[in-house]
């Protein structure tokens, strides 16, 4: 079996792949803080029936213990004007109180903090998890969707937060004719 590429080389290559940026929040059963949050760049849609999403959390992250406890959580898809929230919840070493101090939020019936003015919030229950290297891949079943204004989305690309930008024309190639599709 061939050897893997060096981790730093792989990291440099993956910086060229834009990643969606979300903030995941959950109640912390061991704290009197409003909860905890973490910025995630590995978020993906997994399935439609049932509706599943996935992301990974490093085992040494403060949020890992909370996610392993099986609590409900909320995935916040940040709008272009909310990169500051991505930076805030990405800072290591902050307590739950420090994370939410000055950040407008409310707490839902399940105890999860909901960030105010976020365009899309996906309320999830744990569905599955898998240990992968130094991380755990969590899969959540979406049980509620809260939508507000569409303020674009935040992406992580080349070590910085960026907006989605403008739509690119996709008409450079002529459309495939149905007859040619049937013959292949």
Task: Describe the overall structure.
By secondary structure, the protein is α+β, with helices and mostly antiparallel strands. The protein has a single domain, classed as Electron Transport, Fmn-binding Protein, Chain A (Pnp Oxidase, Chain A, Roll). Helices cover 18% and strands 38% of the residues. The protein is built from five helices and twelve strands. The protein has helices at residues 7-14, 62-68, 83-90, 96-100, 178-182; strands spanning 19-20, 22-26, 36-40, 44-48, 51-58, 73-77, 105-107, 113-115, 120-132, 135-147, 154-157, 160-163. Strands 3-2-6-9-10-5-4 form a seven-stranded antiparallel sheet. Strands 1-11-12 form a three-stranded antiparallel sheet, with no helix packed on it. A two-stranded antiparallel ribbon has the order 7-8. The two termini are 34 Å apart.
Short description:
By secondary structure, this protein is α+β, with helices and mostly antiparallel strands.
């Amino acid at each position: 079996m061939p050897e893997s590429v060096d981790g730093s080389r792989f990291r440099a290559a993956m910086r060229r792949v834009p990643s969606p940026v979300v903030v995941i929040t959950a109640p912390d059963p061991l704290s009197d803080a409003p909860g905890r949050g973490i910025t995630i760049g590995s978020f993906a849609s997994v399935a439609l029936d049932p509706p599943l999403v996935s992301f990974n959390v490093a085992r040494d992250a403060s949020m890992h213990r909370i996610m392993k406890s099986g609590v409900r959580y909320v995935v916040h898809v940040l709008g272009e004007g909310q990169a500051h929230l991505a930076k805030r919840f990405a800072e290591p070493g902050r307590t739950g109180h420090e994370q939410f101090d000055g950040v407008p939020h409310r707490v839902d019936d399940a105890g999860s903090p909901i960030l105010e003015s976020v365009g899309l919030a996906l309320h999830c229950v744990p569905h599955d998890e898998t240990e992968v290297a130094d991380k755990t891949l969590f899969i959540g079943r979406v049980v509620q969707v809260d939508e507000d204004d569409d303020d674009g989305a935040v992406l992580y690309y080349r070590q910085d937060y960026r907006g989605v930008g403008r739509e690119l024309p996709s008409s450079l190639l002529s459309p495939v004719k149905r007859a040619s599709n049937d013959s292949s």
